[in-house]
Amino acid sequence: MAVGFQNQTDSQNLGSVVSVRGGVVDVRFDRRLPPIFSVLHAGAEGKIIVEVMAQLDASRVRGIALTPTEGLARGMQVEDSGKPLEVPVGKEIMSRMFDVFGSAIDRKPAPQNVQWRSIHRAPPPLSARSTKSEIFETGIKAIDVLVPLERGGKAGLFGGAGVGKTVLLTEMIHNMIGHQQGMSIFCGIGERCREGEELYRGMIDAGVLNNMVMVYGQMNEPPGSRFRVGAAALTMAEYFRDDEHRDVLLLIDNIFRFIQAGMEVSGLLGEMPSRLGYQSTMGTDLSGLEERIANTHAGAITSIQAVYVPADDLTDPAAVHVFSHLSASIVLSRKRASEGLYPAIDLLQSSSKMATPGIVGDRHYNLAQEIRRTLAQYESLKDIVAMLGMEQLSLEDRNAVARARRLERFLTQPFFTTEQFSGMKGKLVSLKDSLDGCEQILRDEFKDYPESALYMIGAIGEARKLEAKLPEAKQPEAKRPETKKGEANKLGAKQPETQHPETKRSNENEPEPQKTDPQSKAATASPHES
Fold this sequence. Notes:
Shape: elongated
Number of strands: 18
Radius of gyration: 30 Å
CATH class of the largest domain: Alpha Beta
């Protein structure tokens, strides 16, 4: 129990409502003033729950309602519970779904023989933390190769609306929950109720709900509830780490909604806002939650958090504050999503503190750096290609562009969680297969393969199998870029192989190739006109 709360051995501490302004409730207590974070009950059967946020004077407190305040009026009686907000912990909560108050919301009986712990807890001391660094594989090629995650660390999925944050988070749950021995806790903060229902059914169908706990404070709930649900889920995770000595995977969707709820609570309490309307205590509020996610000698809490970025602006104060707490930042790109390159990860903006030779090894590190250099070179050449075409590039630059485009397509991947929408079976790729595939592409072993052969596959061997099944489709696609007029002048004798038969007669030595183009066009156009 939090410091400052004492067991109530005497009669109840009762007060009365002084004022109600939306979710802000002022209560007068003549006998004893409740401490900060005390839970107050009001209304019929005490169903209206208020958390004390401030002591105004010697007899009045101000609290934020964690439930709707319909029916609450001045003069109504309020009861002080004498304790802070608590949630159940223990083995009996496994495979269950809870709200911020620890009440089961999966239409099953409340769990028995559980402990109740305060959600307000201090982070583990520095002496209790572990400094061991270990890679946490996800089975997703783009993440494992370029943005490796840390076991016991925090990773963020940054992106605007509709770029695939929740889909990527759900895919990570599917890939990792069946391959690790620890517990998984999913915390939904301010997101859609539909997504929570779909995830719950999906975990049942996958048969992995037995090692999972879900805690929800959805977007239809008051800001006070959304502001505390993250701490409630973290309290359960700390039990499994500290008492059960198990590794815990904590998935949060969406940490921005936590900041947004804090902004609403701050505004309701009348505090002065900072830049862009965020609460002035945003850094403190976020640190109080993030610093509890730690790797200790007893166990580790590995956290993956979706972070909504308003208007795709990564300089937004909320995104900036979250960046500072993470060991890996995965940035999702709307441009890549529009091109159909899923997962839509911006491979140049995403980064990880684990991508060092001492942790991932020399081969992995050198490959990742070479991939980034190739993609960066392609990015710098995109404007030239768009305006002047590929024929204006040097041979070295054209090879670099070809490698980058094949790497981009190889790092796409069909997901298990989107099989019903895409019609493609999901793929789980090991880190070794991902590195081997990238290395072979960089060595130009797939320069004669069409880009489409590398799109939405798993391991690189699938591209060879696909080409073996469709040998007749390989030649036209490989030669298609060479049919441009500008490249015909440069490639000389090799070019006529893909041209119309009418133009093959004198193309090699003809001084003015422009004269043959109208003839070939006329020859090909006349059948369609007739």
